[in-house]
């Protein structure tokens, strides 16, 4: 474990503040001029600064970030969807089973890239115009004082590449006119190939290469970004074989639209005919056997908004089964594309010296597919009754997942199933179902505890300092003459060789548009903004002002005794609840989370980045109108 020990020595140049944040005390120094300048050349002595080089033996680094994957989807964490590449990485590395994200895409990505809480880097919501606001924690503009992992590694001798989804470039900057300082190439990446927004059509993507939009070639986006990633690696290794690289591989998969060739989706025909209730039970049992959930975990009841599978009509079962077949095929296809990168590293003899992190989801399973699933996603959709919606989808069942511009997303029943064993789903920062994702760490050169489980509580902001620790790279006090804010993540290097090490992250706050929670030493207090709030396209969302929000309806859970949040202890332990509520308020204030912006504020157009920006509802109506006129 020489490299890890060298990495751990980096901690001697850092101090850990009382909050657990990393504060800088040392960084790469600017080399003072060491030559001699005389009146003539003969009286002078030339001097050249040493070129920046990565620490000797520093590994390549690959971060893989999947989109909208619940805890109970992939096979190495008990799911029924085949992911042989991820399984291999997990079985030859470490499985972190108590890892957490921010419950929705942009905050997770901002936190991951910077090692700081999302509100601290201005991304409490999104970088989209209609879902950000003119406040320090909400404007969607990551500041230069929050340097990214790419900026740090590039300043320390790495080449840096990003492919796939970026998701944290402000809308008003995302044209070929720039400005480009908040594009990936302005945030430390030598090259970028992918899309800047939250989602895109996989066959006709809003595609960007470096600093301009390019025309897609008609192939699936995941294939294109994989080709590009491999080409970046090969070009660099040919020019500088000893120089390490950092690859940020973030496919649009498996966010909607679920699009994949039928070769993949048809492999799952008949595999889910037993329905989502049986899926949950089978996955839960598998998770227990694999040890990826605590032995005392109990499977929560089915969400009351979801019908029992055996109460559905044959047409409903037929329709909903096809949705999950497409999703499963899409995930297996994504795994295949990841295998191309991993196998290529093996072929060029780089895999053993490559540190790989796989974040299996930037949040829990997607709640955005509505009760009946989506084929033509328009957020507000058409004013159809449930039966009309089902019939509409049945008439287009053969189009689900095709390249015909469909906006496929599975129904809520499958969101809960692929989120097993947790309650709720994406957007629900109050629930483990929104924030609890698998993490895989793979590094053949140093990790020899093959397939072992780590249960230490951890958060997405911890990936950056862990990477610095293991690579031996030092954080920087300044980047481009801008003083850097403290990194708030805590390195997980301490747990790599010690499965029983005490968790160093003891608290963490969560907030997404009203939904909120605070974790502290095994206890968790949470508040759902709208307990019945299912999806942006649901009636209760469109008329959300009619739903009463009770700011006193906090819940309290002991996650050690009750890891799936089944038993609310708020009334039995009001003292602990009050303590955690006060801690949440303190965290909110210190991390620039105020003001508390909610889904109501977004849906009803109460926040505007610019004078002419439209409300979320108005923008959704424009989308609907545009599609209907095509």
UniProtKB/TrEMBL annotation:
Keywords: Calcium, Hydrolase, Metal-binding. CDD domains: PAS_like. InterPro entries: Alkaline_phosphatase_core_sf, Sulfatase, Sulfatase_CS, Sulfatase_N. Transmembrane segments: none annotated. The modification 3-oxoalanine (Ser) is found at residue 105. Pfam families: Sulfatase. One of its GO terms (molecular function) is metal ion binding. Belongs to the sulfatase family. This is Sulfatase. It comes from Paludibacter propionicigenes (strain DSM 17365 / JCM 13257 / WB4).
